Amino acid sequence: MRTTSLTGARIAVAAAFFAQGFVFISLTTRLPRFLERWGLDEVTLSLLLLMMVLLAGVGSLVAERAARRFGSASMLRLGLGLMVVAVPAITLAPAIGVFVGGVAVYGIALGLVDATSNMQAVHLEHRYGRPILPSSHGYWTTGGILATILVLTTGHLSPEIGAFVVVVPLVVAFAPFLPHAAAQPDLAPGVVSAGGVSIPRPVVNPNASPADAAPTAGTRVSDAPIPWRPIWLVGAGLVIFYMVDTTASAWGPVYLARSFDAPGNLVALATFPYLVTSIVVRLAGGHLVTRFGVTPLLRIGAVVACGALLLVTLAPTWQVAVAGFTLLGASVALVAPLSFSAAGRIAAGSTPDPAAEPDRARTDAVIARFNQFNYVGALLGSVLTGLIGADNLRLGFALPAVLVLALVPLAPAFARGTLRRRGNQPATGPVTGQ
């Protein structure tokens, strides 16, 4: 693929992440208005959010199956199209049934876009041979920040104004995403097609353990066993991240309002600085990973995140708590993008052949299933924090302060695999923590 094509695809992937963050934050920041409009209580809202998360998981599984046949680009466009249907149904609903139906459709769209945008970003990262997942996730945060600003500036207007956010996913749906890989010819055992030439499949690492072994001669790429054990380790780290992230975004404003009686127009400061510092680190993430390596960055970030959450937990004033949330955003920002990057590298394996490329069907399947860790962490963050902090919300923030330290021993799992540039030139050592 030509560099110009890669550039266009990278812009398209960034736009998909931007649209996802923009729509998601546009809807979540309007939840209080929806509660007021339909007379819903917190329990009913929790059940609606649970439905949305479960349907997002279904959408992610659908993406796994359908991407094999139609490609992740087509399924990403479908997910964006469903958003165009769901958002007006939610914001303009004439009846509660339409509103609930809109939330259900959005849940499926959320899972489709989550899974397929990460599929596209992983394949693009393999094409470039250098980390681009951090900056890709940074555009999700950019969309969230702009959505927050939009809601703050239009909050006094009718909530129906939120329907206009569908313009963003509608436009992005026509972006030039990476096309579906051409079907591979039926090859003899132990042979892989590269640039139209059939060559023997090499053994990547003869000293690897059985769990990490690359496919050997006599095994097709798509039939080779996927090394789930290291992927599960990385997934555990993703669960921890989304638990912390959901705790900050969902309970942060409530914490400022109830524990400190902060002014109503300032409770958003629990999440806004968190997003701002996240985007700064994510957009610089590729450079940071190349320079310092995955493992040191994650370990240092985990320790800093623990301190930030303790600062939030023990804060004497709401201003100190806001400082803790700000520091937290910077310290955990790279966990999610680096986890998807690691899952993609582990799934694809590596090959000394400069012409061969990772099997897209294999990596797509892994990324779609790996995306489920996202929703597990979100559920734990929203439920456990509320249960533990029912009487004193400070205790709810103490739990993630302890659990985030699990990233210290898990960090080396994020460094498995090697990105290779075209011509079989490996990316610099620190990308994989070597």
- Distance N to C terminus: 29 Å
CATH architecture of the largest domain: Up-down Bundle
Percentage of residues in strands: under 5%
Structural domain tally: 2
Q: Strands of the biggest beta sheet: in what spatial order?
A: 1-2
Main attributes?
434 residues; mainly alpha; Growth Hormone, Chain: A; 2 domains; two-stranded antiparallel ribbon; 3% strand; globular; disordered C terminus
Can you describe what's shown?
The protein is mainly α and 434 residues long. It has 2 domains: 1-177, Up-down Bundle (Growth Hormone, Chain: A); 222-434, Growth Hormone, Chain: A (Up-down Bundle). It is 67% helix and 3% strand. The chain contains 17 helices and 4 strands. The chain has helices at 3-28, 31-38, 42-70, 72-91, 96-128, 133-154, 167-172, 228-260, 272-283, 285-292, 294-314, 318-332, 335-348, 360-370, 372-388, 393-403, 407-410, and strands at residues 191-194, 197-200, 420-421, 425-426. The strands form 2 sheets. A two-stranded antiparallel ribbon has the order 1-2. It has a two-stranded antiparallel sheet with strand order 3-4. Strand 3 and strand 4 form a beta hairpin. Helix 8 (228-260) runs antiparallel to helix 12 and helix 8 packs antiparallel against helix 13 (335-348). It starts with a helix and ends in an 8-residue tail after the last strand. The model is unreliable at 182-222, 350-355 and 421-434 (pLDDT under 50).
